[in-house]
Amino acid sequence: MREKELEKIKEYKYGFSTDIEDVKAPKGLNKKVIQFISKIKNEPKWMLDWRLKAYDRLQKLTEPDWQKPKYPKINYQDLYYYSAPKSMKDKPKNLEDLDPKLLETYKKLGIPLQEQKKLNNIAVDAVFDSVSVATTFKEKLTEKGIIFCPISEAIQKHPDLVKKYLGSVIPLTDHYFATLNSAVFTDGSFVYIPKNVRCPMELSTYFRINASETGQFERTLIIADEGSYVSYLEGCTAPMRDENQLHAANVELIALDNAEIKYSTVQNWYPGDKDGKGGIYNFVTKRGACRGKNSKISWTQVETGSAITWKYPSCILQGDNSVGEFYSIAITNNYQKADTGTKMIHLGKNTKSKIISKGISAGFADNTYRGLVDINRKAENARNYTQCDSLLMGSKCGAHTIPYIKNKNSSSNIEHEATTSKISEEQLFYCNQRGLNQEEAVSLIVNGFCKDVLQQLPMEFAVEAQKLVGISLEGSVG
Amino acid sequence: MLKINNLSAKIENKQILNGLNLNVKAGEIHAIMGPNGSGKSTLANILSGKKGYEISGSITYQDKDLFKLEIEERAHNGLFLAFQYPLEIPGVNTSNFLKTSLNAIRKSNGKKELDALEFLKIIKLKAAELKIDEKILNRQLNVGFSGGEKKKNEILQMSLYEPNMVILDETDSGLDIDALKIVANGVNSLRDKKRSFLIITHYQRLLDYIKPDFVHVLMQGKIAKTGCSDLALELEKAGYEKI
Questions:
Q1: Chain segment A389-403, per-residue pLDDT in tens
Q2: Residue A380, domain member (yes or no)
Q3: pLDDT tens-digit map of B150-188
Q4: pLDDT number for residue A329
Q5: Is residue A366 domain-resident?
């Protein structure tokens, strides 16, 4: 048994679970549970009302079903919507008061919470199941007027900002999973960068699902005020469990005049075992609004985990001259499935968007790029460039490219390029002959294939991501 | 160094090698010549470990059973094949590839891996010695390289890894005279008592610049004739039919 477990751990090294006493909301989805969540977070009434409005709306919605990966019906009444380590009930004031088990967990995950051990110039907000357990470098950021805190804290301390922007990019009524999130979201990060401030370090949130039968519904809201800049990173892992766990997050970004937000994700949720048992359903809504002129939002995602990844980080290019970018690597191995891409909605004049997508399929996996480029009637001189490349390994996997283009303005310029290729035996042989083993060779070739996207990641993470790309495909050839 | 004993090989039921024997001692240069389809490239492929052949017979390399070594283990043990058609790997920087390979080989031999600076110093020196334009180092591996550039890149790698047993698979094909000299120069500068070469070629031309110890004629899957370097000249004049 133990050996078997070790074997599993080797496959997914973040697959351990932390044995920690937790506080849970009663199972099920109803108004009482929402009231429970709101109460335990000590939320003001407007927040509870907002949640309940979302809940009411949810009753009228059904899950979308147009996506390629199908999944068994989720029983929403059979899930926990809130789970937090008991020790978090009386909020620890600082890291020293934090439950050592939590510190240990993050240490195992390679996330430095103890600031004195800082190796990287990165501030971290760590979210464990439904609560944020620690945020580092707070003081240093406060000096510059930057707010970086759990969203539950922002609701209390910065209600004006939250009221003004929450739901302004992803409305309450958007679609089933987004609305579900609005009703039951538990924690996540809040970022506000004041006017003309360039955030001096990478901001990062690390999401960890620990409890079983629990959904994680985090909410992230990032506002870059005029002339500001921020680079934000998100990482995720979960224990290996035989059941499928739901992760339905909402991320909203707002960039005002001349502001820039760079949002990077390295998603490594538990993908399920070799036979496709277990794994996370990663149904996430991410959307950014380039509200101001000359603003820019850039999404970079490296999606290697999850049983099903279903997300389209999008940009609404409202401001004139605003720029939206989407760089994506989606790797699916074994029985993993991905249906991911982006939406670029051009509303302002001279708006530009760029989409670079790299899909890699191995084993029995299925990988779909789905993207929308929508040029509004008033979007004079809009430009889009899209490049979708797929790489297949073996003959039992699939790759699909589904680009939608809606163009209502004849002054626009839209380019789309797509390729599908296979790693050839000859390429592998060549690498082997130069001393690289099969896994090193695959990793090298795949990293070459993904280069255009990897180089968009902040340095510290590019190296990690490169390794992850190799690990995710281990055992997929030969 | 290398001992091939009664080697036969089939691919998709087609007999390609048919009882081939060859003994290459340390420090020797052997040239293998032969007409199209005589099994020259198959021999190179089998030596380096390419899969897909049905093989009988035995090969010992440095007193080891070669068939028990994986492709990369053969490389770690100093066996190097210069490809007839070097592969393109998009997105992979040539310099990075060479460094990764060199370090994989060094690591397997218990040597310290080189960092980027140490590596750059060595590779620049090698490129200069071989008169190879170091610009190729910053390009994607073999992508968009001319035929000559690809072959020069193979020679650069040969010189970098300092292998014990070098197999050149028609490295001279399609090269102009300047590139041919670079290839020959690369081989000659590595030539020493401990290192052996197996040079597979169609033409006598390369042997004007590299003087082999033995010339073998491969026909119908086995060595039909062996001689000294004069044999190559004879073949050039009379063709393979006389053998």
A1: 999 988 889 999 999
A2: no
A3: 999 999 999 999 999 999 999 988 889 999 999 999 999
A4: 92
A5: no
Chain B residue at shortest CA distance from A429: B50
> Where do the domains of chain B lie?
71-174
- Taken in order B175, B181, B187, B193, the sign of the CA dihedral is positive
Q: What's the pLDDT band for A6 if we cut at 50, 70, 90? A: very low
Taking contacts as CB-CB distances below 8 angstroms, the residues of chain B near A436 are: 72, 100-101, 104
Query: Three-class SS of residue A261?
Result: strand
pLDDT in tens, B102-127: 999 999 999 999 999 999 999 999 99
According to DSSP, the β-strands at B214-219 and B54-61 are: unpaired
The 3-state DSSP class for residue A299 equals: strand
Does domain B71-174 fall under CATH 3.40.50.1000? My reply is no
Minimum-distance CB partner of A433 among B81, B91, B108:
B81
Residue A408, domain member (yes or no): no
Domain of residue A172, residue span: 2-311
When the pLDDT of each residue in chain A is averaged and rounded to a whole number, the result is 85
CA–CA distance, A94 with A152 (Å, rounded to integer):
17
The predicted model gives A335-350 an average pLDDT of 95
Q: Which of B72, B98, B157 to mutate to test the interface with A (most CBs of A within 10 A)?
A: B72
DSSP state of A73: P
Nearest-10 Cα torsion for A460, A464, A469, A474: 170
- Provide the CB-side half-sphere exposure for B71 (13 A, CA): 26
Give me the residue label for tokens 């310290």: B112
Q: Which of A283, A23, A48 is nearest to A182 (CA)?
A: A48
The total domain count for chain A is 1
Which chain B residues contact residue A437 at CB under 8 A? 70, 72, 104
A236-256 confidence digits (pLDDT tens) = 666 666 667 788 999 999 999
Residue A462 lies in a domain: no
